[in-house]
Design a protein that fits this description.
single chain, mainly beta, five-stranded mixed beta sheet, three-stranded antiparallel beta sheet, 8 strands
Length: 120
């Protein structure tokens, strides 16, 4: 199966933006995580409609002032996968980000994962 995903780091979206303004033809409504309490950063993840089952994993996705990770569970040919889109700001050390990412990866260890992002 061909996996069709697109991710964008540094989306710069805020809570005032309408995610439907960023909709792409033939893709599900975009998944996104905005930076908290600051401008910049953020991630958007697009999943093509040929992948019919996709769901935000809220318990593993996170956003703080410097780092954002978005985890979306997808199913292809009855096999579960996860797509992880991340942004790590260069304004912070990598330790907090690595800790968050390590936690995510430890929780999805039974799934095949696609890891994308801007890791600075």
């Amino acid at each position: 199966a061909v996996v069709s995903t697109q991710s964008t780091g540094e989306s710069w979206l805020t809570d005032k933006d309408d995610i439907l303004d960023y909709q792409l033809d033939d893709y599900h409504t975009p998944f996104f995580r905005n930076r908290v309490n600051r401008l910049g950063g953020g991630v958007i993840l697009y999943i093509h409609k040929r992948i019919p089952v996709c769901k935000l994993n809220k318990s593993l996705s996170f956003s703080d002032e410097y780092n954002q990770c978005l985890v979306v569970d997808i199913t292809i040919n009855q096999v579960k996968h996860c797509v992880i889109a991340c942004y790590r700001s260069p304004s912070t050390t990598g330790e907090a980000f690595i800790s968050h990412l390590d936690h995510i990866l430890s929780q999805v260890n039974s799934k095949q994962c696609i890891l994308t992002g801007d890791f600075n």
